[in-house]
Amino acid sequence: MDTTEYNRVLVVLILINSLPIGNSAPQGFCNPEQESLGECHSSPAEEKPVCIDINLAYCNDLGYSRTIFPNILGHRSRQEVESGPEYLLLSVIRGLLHGECSPDIRLLGCSVLAPPCKNQPSPTSVKPCRSACEALKKGCGHAFEGIDMAWPYFLDCDRFFASDEEGCHDPLAQLRAKQEVSLSSLSLDKTSTIIQFTYHTNAQMYSVLKRTASKCSHISRTYSLGRSVEGKDLLAIEFSDNPGGHELLEPEVKLVGNMHGNEVLGRQLLIYLAQYLCSEYLLGNQRIQTLVNTTRVHILASMNPDGYDLAVAEVEDSNDPERQEHDNQEGRELNSWTVGRTNAQNLDLNRNFPDLTSILYRNRRINQFRTDHIPIPDSYWFGKIAPETYAVMKWIRSVPFVLSASLHGGELVISYPFDFSRHIHEDRMFSPTPDEQAFKQLARTYADAHASMADNNTERCGASFIRNGGIINGAQWYSFPGGMSDFNYLHTNCLEITVELGCDKFPPEVELYPEWLRNKEALMSFMESVHRGIKGVVKDEEGYGIKGASISVRGIRKDVTTAEDGDYWRLLNSGTYIVTASAKGYSRVSKRIRLPAHLEKPGRVDFLLKKVQVRPVEPDYQLLFPSSSLDTYERFDPYNQFRRNGEPGEPSEPGTGGEPGLDPERQEKPWWWSYFSQAGFSAPTWLLRNV
Ligand SMILES: [Zn+2]
């Protein structure tokens, strides 16, 4: 909703509050909750119906001028209509649905509140046509679902509408005629989406993502990873030709924005990207269809919605002229540079992950030490863990992600792991992973496709690190432990880069559209690059996939493991490789492969492993590392330490009962509820779904 619409909602609310009208229901008809409260009085001795001029601001364009009271809902006067929740809904619905199905819904509602009046033989109303209602419900039901709103009771096609045979009025006929005259193919095109390049509040973000998912429900859905400290949803949206499930051999990508709450551009770009993927898919964009049909894309636009709110408040505050007089310039800028960066517990989420990099450095000289899938040490669970970190860790562990980007701001550069320096006293030291070549290529993919990132002449943000075409090793830039990218790499198969989108962490709104243009191709190319390298299935002799088998590449000391059904992905640049598959209790199989440059699709390399007798005396990993004997990969929060600390935000799993620490009111009511609950009439619970 833009500000003018928002103001209009407020004006309407104020008007209604000031009207001297009680909660009394219109007498002729009862809405559902009045019925349940026994507030309905059937009064057959109503006053005679009269035809009267329509005098309703939101229903003044119906193509006829006379309506009837009592109307179809039993309202006896214009004042009664204006003070009801039905009319309030029609006056704000355009804003709530972000313009979708507008003005159609309003016109349909007006045809019930203010139906045409026929004077012969006596004043009677002409009911609106059921066919129009049904068509609109079919086309617009998803828009209501998108904001968690029920289809309004007074638009019940069966109760308040009439068939053609009975004689009815088509409330949308005039609109359709106008559209045909204007020949505007765009406005008739139900699939096109107008992306609003503005900032979105958390509520607006949830609304846009949910509406996008319901509009594209065959390729998209939203789901929650958990909740922030203040109980806000960590809402992800996914795109896939089979949303909701992993498909054999289909790689999974994730994009994460707003981990630092005050770095807001990435968050907006991801909201736009979700809308773009949906509408372009529907429009038949070949490239988008190929991507979505062959890839599962997950988008978490905001990992830190609490921090975002703080950052917004800070930006608004610093625009306050009174405050500007008091603050000295430097102090204010310093402040707005950091306010909202952390979560509501003041934890920097990008320092809050388990520091597996140190464990790697300590043990790397030991021959048997596995440098992949390093377990989370038990000690981690006794520190302070943010619910946002916890939720994201669970997410990273539960989906076989191959590739990821975390979107930040404050610089214009791509950095890639390791972020933590391999030398304890060197906080600017090149610290490559075994996948240095693949990481470099991935970083280049984004930087080169970005409008200005790879350009060394572009004016940068004041830092003086050495840049190489807009990409840099994280630890060489500046070293820090506990980052998300290092965790992705050392704990899972996933390769994650950090995208610093620009110098300004909170750019002015006019910059949002140009920034989208600068990053759109980069985001697309990056997602597509998940199809580099090789993929395949590791099977046993009976043809069953082997879960957890290792795929090793000679010369790269980092194995990837197979997913549930034995499928794997190994990002590799072009070249010749020896690839080996192994699993406990099976023989090893090696293959020599050659990946030519500019391979469009990943090479398919399957393995068939034969069962062998497990040798009783194997070098015992646990004996080599007694200190880590308790730390196994499967253990996650082994002492339930996270819950015991009373951390809020952990969503309950199915069957585990309630959600501690959450206000049930806040959980149940959608964001638009306050518009209606404060308006002076009995709250229209018929707008709530699943009640
Ligand atoms: Zn950041």
Q: Could you describe the 3D structure shown?
A:
- The chain has an eight-stranded mixed β-sheet, sandwiched between helices.
- The protein contains 25 helices and 20 strands.
- Strand 10 (411-416), helix 18 (436-449) and strand 11 (471-473) form a beta-alpha-beta unit.
- The protein has 691 residues and is an alpha/beta fold.
- The chain folds into three domains: 3-190 and 672-687, Frizzled cysteine-rich domain (Orthogonal Bundle), CATH 1.10.2000; 202-531, Zn peptidases (Aminopeptidase); 534-619, Carboxypeptidase-like, regulatory domain (Immunoglobulin-like, Sandwich), CATH 2.60.40.1120.
- 34% of the residues lie in helices and 15% in strands.
- Bound molecules: zinc ion.
- The site of zinc ion has 3 residues, from loops.
CATH domain class of the largest domain: Alpha Beta
CATH fold call of the largest domain: Aminopeptidase
Name the hetero compounds present.
Answer: zinc ion
Uncertain segments: 1-28, 183-191, 327-334, 625-630, 648-666
Report the end-to-end length measured between terminal Cα atoms: 26 Å
The percent range for helix content is: 25-40%
CATH superfamily of the largest domain: Zn peptidases
Q: Which outline best applies?
A: elongated
Briefly note the structural class of the backbone.
alpha/beta
Taken as a percent bin, the fraction of beta residues is 5-15%
CATH architecture of the largest domain: 3-Layer(aba) Sandwich
How many distinct beta strands?
Answer: 20
Overall mean confidence score, pLDDT: 84
Strand order of the largest sheet: 5-6-8-7-9-12-10-11
Count, helices: 25
Q: What does the main sheet amount to?
A: 8 strands, mixed
Cα-atom radius of gyration: 30 Å
User: How many domains, as an integer?
Assistant: 3
